[in-house]
Write a structure and sequence with these properties.
The protein has 279 residues and is mainly β. It folds into 2 domains: 2-190, no CATH class; 206-278, no CATH class. It is 8% helix and 38% strand. It is built from 3 helices and 17 strands. The strands form 3 sheets. Strands 1-8-4-5-6-7 form a 6-stranded mixed sheet.
Length: 279
């Protein structure tokens, strides 16, 4: 039997440690690949999430970027939002790549109101990025209710897979960015890719990405990344941001860990103090 849902499955809490990592290269971490046979159990359910033996299948109601998307979900409880997922992206009748997560939430699919039935099949509606999106604009094409989408984030003509964590906090959702290489997904875990949220600005004509972070009214950070070869960063440049603050650490990480972008500017406000960095 098929069950129709009104919203899309949204992936959350995709912690690196929760993925089925298979290899690591200089730039990315491989997390899944075509043809991998993976035994999935519900041992990711912690003490706060009841373990079950439930397994349901699902599919999306339309193709996404030319892919037919379907998979299996292993919820931690009959009315739970959390569990494990296997999701196949199929093109021309073959699995192009597979997405795996040990820690997955489907709150946006169910609205927190569902009773999973073991062995049943569910059809979910794919919500396009612009739908009911308070952040959507010409400079921010990333979805708010969209679980995943494809976008050329680094302006190289090749689209990456962006997966939302469905956090819905200040700044909207955070996005995990995956390069698609040789029929597998590779998590890109360095700036600016690991700092993208619904407030970020993506500017293809300028070849720039702008990220924003804040900790209440006390700290605000704006970082402008420009696509290009990183140049040398001097210690004196990073020392001005030295702090126990996670916001300030964002600036340091951006300056020293960015690879195929470089930090063009940083504007950091902490209390009444303003720090500016220009390359």
């Amino acid at each position: 039997m098929k069950y129709n849902a009104t919203s899309i499955i949204v992936v959350a809490s995709l912690l690196i440690s929760c993925h089925n990592s298979t290899s690591k290269d200089e730039d990315t971490k491989s997390v899944s690949s075509t043809g991998v046979s993976t035994e999935v159990s519900n041992n990711s359910c912690n003490e706060e999430r009841t373990e079950t033996t439930l397994k349901v299948s699902f599919e999306y109601d339309k193709n996404v970027n030319g892919y037919t998307v379907s998979g299996s979900f292993y919820p931690c409880a009959e009315d739970g939002e959390w569990g494990k997922v296997e999701m196949d992206f199929v093109k021309n009748g073959e699995v192009a790549f597979r997405f795996l997560s040990d820690d997955y939430t489907c709150y946006s699919t169910t609205g927190g109101n569902i009773h999973w039935k073991d062995g049943e099949h569910y059809v979910f509606k794919y919500i396009s990025p612009e739908v009911d999106n308070p952040y959507y604009s010409n400079t921010n094409p990333l979805g708010y209710h969209t679980s995943f989408q494809f976008y050329d984030l680094d302006f190289d003509g090749k689209q990456e897979l962006l997966v939302s964590d469905d956090y819905r906090g200040h700044g909207g959702n955070h996005f995990y960015v995956y390069a698609i290489k040789n029929n597998s997904l590779h998590l890109i875990d360095y700036p600016p890719y690991n700092s993208i949220n619904n407030e970020s600005e993506i500017l293809p004509e300028q070849r720039e990405i702008v990220t924003y972070d804040e900790d209440g009214v006390w700290e605000q950070m704006k970082i402008v990344y420009h696509k290009g070869k990183p140049s040398r960063v001097y210690k004196k440049d990073t020392l001005q941001f030295s702090s126990d603050s996670w916001v300030a650490q964002k600036a340091i990480d951006a300056m020293v860990k960015t690879r195929n972008f470089y930090v063009k500017s940083v504007d950091y406000k902490i209390g009444d103090r303003v720090i500016k960095y220009r390359k």
